[in-house]
Specification:
The complex is a heterodimer. Helix content of chain A is 36%, strand content 19%. By secondary structure, chain A is α/β, with parallel strands linked by helices. In chain A, helix 3 packs across helix 7 and helix 11 crosses helix 12. Chain A is globular and about 70 Å long. Chain A starts with a strand and ends with a strand. Helices cover 34% and strands 18% of the residues of chain B. Chain B is built from 13 helices and 15 strands. In chain B, the strands form three sheets. In chain B, strands 1, 2, 5, 6, 7, 8, 9, 10, 11, 14 and 15 form an eleven-stranded mixed sheet that branches. In chain B, strands 3-4 form a two-stranded antiparallel sheet. A two-stranded antiparallel ribbon of chain B has the order 12-13. In chain B, strand 14 and strand 15 form a beta hairpin. In chain B, helix 7 crosses helix 13. The radius of gyration of chain B is 21 Å and the shape is globular. The chains are: A alpha/beta, B alpha/beta. Chains A and B meet through helix 4, helix 5, helix 6, helix 7 and strand 5 of A and helix 3, helix 4, helix 5, helix 6 and strand 6 of B.
């Protein structure tokens, strides 16, 4: 079976705001990046906007059981369910979350490291046990478990068809969408919620990515000017409600867009150009039409951007948009966010103006939009977004 | 050959396993059937101030007895996963060295910097503060690649030459089963003719132990480690953390037969159901647990009465075992099949458990024997099930085994393992 799958709901949060209408307006209205260059200097981040958490996570007890990453994801998941008008469908809704790690308690970590790091092992070990046993909040463990974003989405929004969590940075999200799409297309369920969240304003994330040379230092410059120098992390969450087209029609819902296909692979990246070649092979698996093509580039500004440029050079007729110049790189949330922006443009019957100096100067309205994802470490992914017929 | 839903049958042609009882299927399985315990005093780090001091740790071959803090959890996960994968692929005789013709589905725990790394960064920075450590860690690409979520999957994919993007999953205690299910679905969809699913965990380090301890999830029966894990028993007081890995080579049945492979069994059905009740507890009505069991049996196209044995989740926490017994009664009524928990012997291997227990289920079918639930001294009057107490049992005609995995966060996955089709 290969059933048509629509995107019927989008929950999108970035530093530019929340919701697809707000993003359509902001990106068409000359939005400038929202940047915090001080808190994590020399690394800048695009911070979260203020969220009215009570609107999606009404119980304070639930909010207290989470840290910012889980709250952000649970919030965006709720936005997507609302956007799809699917509150009544959650009990049989399937769920795949692309997750990173949960928050550390930075104050506890810093105090313990300062106190014990220089002690001999024989002394540090016992004291570490004591400090952790007394210093860790029991609920923090649950806020740290990667699968508990999905757990919280089940608890807060009642999504219980199934629940899976994928890990592995950008790739995890692309495969989450690919598999959610494939399962619906073959008839395993009628509706699914899929996406990810990334809380960028966290020292533990900076400490993870900075040693890999993955982060841009200093004030951000547009993606196309970074020469692989690094990503600017962006707080971001994006969830999509995917639905079998017939199921949506039967309940009187029009698709925001059709998800025409999602393909993924992971090049070993042994040599420059391998990643581009992998993406080129993936492209051949997608039903590209003859009409105007738009590209929502998932460019992160890291070393692999040279390969993305090489890949895009093979599509000279397409109009490319690099939203990351405005919203930064959202790791597990990045690919879903780019798909959300593509679907938003398709639904609006237009496209975004150039968002980066290197974006194609074109005002053609794309009939299809190709979303690219080149993981900072590994993973190549493409998605094709088209009008819902 | 197709199943009742017109999907290709999914054959298991290779199994690999690492448990606290040993490296390799043969040793682990023999000792499981002998009722041995792999639970012991933790030797890896100091035990002062800990409420629980026992675990089912797995020493790496080059480690002294008891182990050390020289290896981080992701390193242990990668080593055990690689061993299990190599063993499974060797048995399946599929592909060639470094060129496995299928996808990789890896069930593993989330990873993050651990205290040895934190202390090293703090020493390098002469400061405990993150801002200073970030500066000191700059250029340490090894730290980045070791603790990335995608790092282990990438290295295993590169080593074994699996195809496509490796997928790493975590659904807490159901993780291993989720990895198998994701692989099975890829074969059923016709995306691939082969896959390798592996679940691995190596989380016995101070912070992880303390976190579980703070949730009051762990047994504190420290004085007699081998007797601490007591699934389904009246005096059970929590699970025992453990480590290990298992891998299954999965193939399109027709493709496996065509190449002359030995088919050990089938993954005939997968069922899942999420719970929305509580972060660490199941809904008291058992709906999600019951739904997952029902879905697995229905997915396999058999009747509940055809299930001959259940390899239980059986963690040994008061709550889990009660819920699992409730689920058994709801699905199987007055005549439930025997259920045993190998966690009584090897502890709760967390992200590996679903894979190790699926592997054990297949071995039960292969050898027509049920591993025991050891430490069964005083039955729980609320759990009136045949738990195969203390001694392995030889059986005949066992064709269908249910393997249950129920996770924190409400993620429940059940697998239905079956004998190969009769000629």
């Amino acid at each position: 079976m290969n059933r048509e799958i629509w995107i019927t709901g989008i929950g999108l949060v970035t530093s530019l705001g929340e919701g697809r209408a707000a993003h359509w307006a902001a990106l068409n209205g000359g939005a400038v990046p929202v940047v915090d260059t001080d808190t994590f200097a020399p690394y800048a981040v695009h911070p979260l906007p203020a969220l009215n958490l009570d609107a999606q996570i009404p119980r304070k007890g639930d909010q207290r059981q989470m840290e910012p990453w889980q709250r952000l994801g649970t919030y965006a998941a709720g936005l997507a369910i609302d956007d799809a008008g699917a509150r009544g469908l959650v009990s049989d809704m399937h769920l795949i979350v692309a997750a990173g790690g949960g928050e550390r308690d930075v104050a506890v970590d810093e105090a313990i490291a300062a106190e014990l790091a220089e002690l001999p092992d024989a002394e540090a070990g016992p004291r570490l046990n004591e400090r952790l046993a007394n210093g860790l909040r029991p609920t923090l463990f649950l806020a740290q478990l990667s699968n508990l974003l999905a757990g919280n989405i089940s608890i807060v929004h009642g999504v219980t068809g199934s629940s899976r969590t994928f890990m592995g940075e950008e790739s995890a999200a692309a495969d989450a969408i690919r598999i959610a799409h494939a399962r619906l297309a073959e008839g395993r369920g009628e509706i699914a919620l899929v996406g990810g969240a990334f809380a960028a304003q966290r020292w533990d994330m900076v400490l993870l990515y900075a040693p890999g040379g993955a982060l841009w230092q200093g004030a951000p410059v547009p993606l196309s000017e970074r020469q692989g120098g690094g990503a600017v992390l962006g707080a971001m969450a994006a969830f999509l409600v995917l639905e079998h087209a017939e199921h949506a029609r039967a309940r009187g819902v029009r698709g925001i867009a059709k998800l025409g296909g999602v393909v993924t692979d992971a090049s070993r990246r042994a040599a420059q150009g391998d990643s581009a070649a992998t993406a080129a092979r993936l492209l051949r698996k997608l039903p590209l039409g003859a009409g105007p093509l738009g590209i929502m580039s998932g460019d992160s500004g890291t070393a692999v951007q040279a390969d993305e440029a090489r890949f895009l050079a093979e599509l000279p007729q397409a109009a490319t948009r690099r939203a990351g110049t405005l919203i930064g790189h959202g790791v597990e949330a990045n690919f879903p966010a780019q798909v959300a922006l593509a679907a938003t443009a398709i639904e609006a019957g237009g496209f975004y103006p150039p968002l980066d100096p290197a974006d194609t100067p074109s005002d053609a309205v794309p009939r299809q939009i190709l979303v690219t994802g080149f993981g900072v470490f590994r993973g190549e992914a493409l998605a094709l977004v088209e009008p819902a017929s | 050959m197709k199943d009742h839903l017109g999907r290709p049958l999914v054959a298991v042609t290779g199994i690999g396993m690492v448990t606290p009882l040993g490296w390799g299927v043969a040793t682990s399985w023999a000792r499981l059937l002998a009722g041995d315990s792999g639970i012991r005093r933790i030797g890896r780090f100091p035990l002062d101030h800990l409420k629980t001091t026992i675990a089912g740790t797995v020493d790496l071959p080059e480690e002294a007895d008891g182990g050390s803090t020289a290896f981080s959890s992701p390193q242990r996960v990668e080593r055990m996963a690689a061993f299990a994968m190599a063993e499974a692929i060797a048995e399946a005789k599929l592909g060639s060295e470094g060129d496995f013709p299928g996808v990789l589905m890896l069930g593993m725990p989330p990873v993050e910097h651990e205290w040895p790394q934190r202390f090293a960064m703090a020493r390098a920075a002469h400061s405990g503060r993150y801002v200073d450590q970030v500066r000191a860690a700059t250029g340490h690409r090894d730290l980045y690649e070791t603790f990335l979520f995608g790092g282990i999957g990438e290295r295993l994919a590169a080593r074994f030459g699996t195809k496509g993007a490796p997928i790493s999953t975590t659904t807490a205690c159901a993780t291993g089963a989720t990895a198998i299910q994701t692989a099975v679905e890829a074969i059923q969809r016709g995306e691939t003719l082969a896959a390798i699913a592996v679940g691995a965990d190596g989380s016995v380090q101070p912070e992880a132990l303390i976190r579980f301890s703070l949730l009051s999830a762990l047994s504190t029966r420290n004085e007699d480690p081998a007797r601490a894990a007591r699934p389904f028993e009246k005096t059970r007081d929590g699970f025992v953390m453990a480590e290990g890995a298992a891998a299954l080579v999965l193939e399109d049945y027709d493709a496996a037969v065509a190449r002359g492979a030995n088919v050990i069994g089938l993954v005939a059905g997968c069922g899942e159901r999420a719970d929305s009740f509580h972060r660490t507890r199941s809904n008291p009505d058992g709906a999600a647990v019951i739904g997952a069991i029902h879905n697995a049996i229905a997915d396999a196209g058999i009747a509940p009465a055809e299930v001959g044995y259940v390899n239980g989740h059986g963690t040994g926490t008061p709550e889990n075992d009660k819920m699992e017994a409730l689920g058994m009664r709801a699905v199987f009524g007055d005549a439930p099949p025997p259920i045993s928990s190998i966690k009584s012997m090897i502890g709760h291997t967390l992200s590996a458990a679903g894979a190790i227990e699926a592997a054990a289920s297949l071995l039960s079918i292969r050898d027509q024997v049920l591993p025991p639930t050891i430490n069964h001294v005083e039955p729980d009057p609320a759990i009136t099930l045949d738990v195969v107490p203390n001694v392995a049992r030889h059986v005949t005609g066992l064709r269908h085994v249910l393997s249950n995995s129920f996770g924190f966060g409400g993620q429940n996955v059940c697998l239905l393992l079956s004998a190969p089709p009769e000629a």
